[in-house]
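Hi support team,

I submitted a single chain yesterday and got back a structure, but I'm not sure I'm reading the token output correctly. Could someone confirm the output below corresponds to the sequence I sent? I've pasted both exactly as they appear in my results page.

Thanks,
R.
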Amino acid sequence: MNSEVLSDVAKIIMGQSPPSSTYNSICNGLPFFQGKADFGEMYPTPRVYCSEPNRVSEPGDILITVRAPVGPTNINPVQSCIGRGLAAIRASKAVDRNYLLYFLRFYEPELAKAGTGSTFAAISREDLETVKIPLPPLTDQRRIANILSRADRLRRLRRGGDALTGSLLQSVFLEMFGDPVRNSKGWERAIIDDVLSLSQYGTSNKSNSDKRGYPVLGMTNITYDGKLELEPLSYVEISAKELRELRLEKGDIIFNRTNSTELVGKTTFWNHDFDAVIASYLVKLKLKKNVLPEYFVTFLNMPYYKHLFQERCKKAIGQSNISPTLLREFPMLIPPLPEQERFAAIVRRVESLRRKQAESARQAEELFQSLLAQSFKTA
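Hi R., thanks for writing in. Yes, this is the structure output for that exact sequence:
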């Protein structure tokens, strides 16, 4: 099997940031892509434009991040300006563009290892130019790319299905309870303090990954839309007395009190049978009997509440915070319990569907990663 260095089969254009005075958000000039924050699954989304670009990437180029995180890739859909966090790779006739894309995705961990720098990881033009690519005949390249493309599409569809299921709950909530801003159905108004019997910070003991002690949940265990993810789990060593005080019980609300502004307020609830606690940047809440956790969590994860959290949280440099005291002042609507119970039954059915989708997505991801490894370890 022949192999070639990247510089022999592709043109590499290193990005360069133009003067900040040329940036704008009114579509004046070319879309300006700067790094991973602009990337999607396959294509970047413009957030900023540039009226005087220094380095230009053409449609169809592979965009690759050269500053932390090093290695993620996208396909450039339009002519664009690229900043110094990116490089554009333009495939020659000797290599299939999609074959090259999937090879770079396979090779991403090695590129990440090559990243150097005391402040943040970065790779140079030479690091890219000297990457060795296995190069079978073009017909084989296209066959491999076609197989990987289909497996990639399958895993993206599986992930997209989970996102759609998440949005379904919000649609059902609005159908049953109406717009929380206008309270068009006339539910009882309250504040969160009226429905809580307890609010409690988590443990500040140092966590470990050696499974010493009890599982401790952190902010990364709560997704933006309120799902509880148990992987990865950290552990914490605490006394029996601390465990009795801090242990999560079924129905307990877990509230993310501090993070970047857009992530403050992520909320979920505990519904497992093993002993676990939360870290100190989360808050445990216990509800009174007039509000069910399924209703409360969905309410707090609605766009209405996301906006309130972002508006009212206490902001500091790089971090925002909502204390339990401040949280208690937020408004609340309390529909009758039978309505909440009907909604809770729907939540349970949706969560059952989500678990099946998660398993399907896991299998699709494993299939893709297996095909990726087979394609380039034996190409």
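A quick pointer for reading it: Residues 62 and 75 are 5 Å apart (CA to CA). Let us know if anything else looks off.

Best,
Support desk
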